[in-house]
Amino acid sequence: MTIKVKVEFLGGLDVISNSIREHKCVVPYEEGEATMKELIDHITKTIISDPKDIPVFIEDGTVRPGILVLINDTDWELEGMEEYVIESGDVFTFTSTLHGG
Fold first, then answer.
1. For residue 38, is it within any domain?
2. What is the pTM of this model?
3. Domain count within the chain
4. Quick one: which of 5, 39, 95, 99 could link to 10 by a disulfide (CB 3.0–4.6 Å)?
């Protein structure tokens, strides 16, 4: 069995995924076995198109500061951050809060 989720990159962060904002992901874990840690690892291996862009998304093993993370439209800090157990149908939104201008 696998976990099917949607991952969105907003606020210019889509540059790390060939300018594709929305991704339907199949995470190779059983329901109830994978956390945000595994999802973040999956994203860096399968969605980020250029390994040089990984530091734009990840710092010290987690999502870097300046990126707002929402789990089903709720701040991930309220959901347990990296420890959140992902479920099929979840929507994960990563939005850069650092804009040029």
1. yes
2. 0.93
3. 1
4. 95
- Which residues are CB-contacts of 37 (< 8 A; sequence separation ≥ 6)? 82, 83
Condensed to tens digits (0 to 9), the pLDDT of residues 41-63 reads 999 999 998 999 999 999 998 99
For the chain, the residue count is 101
Tell me whether residue 101 is in a domain. no
C-alpha to C-alpha distance for 38 and 85, rounded to whole angstroms? 9
Give DSSP secondary structure letters for 60-97: TTEEPTTEEEEETTEEGGGTTGGGPBP-TT-EEEEEE-
Amino acid identity at 95: T
- Residue 53 CB contacts under 8 Å (≥ 6 apart), including other chains: 15, 16
Full domain range(s) for residue 56: 3-96
How many other C-beta atoms can be found within 10 angstroms of the C-beta atom of residue 62?
15
Round to whole Å and give the CA distance between 76 and 55. Answer: 20
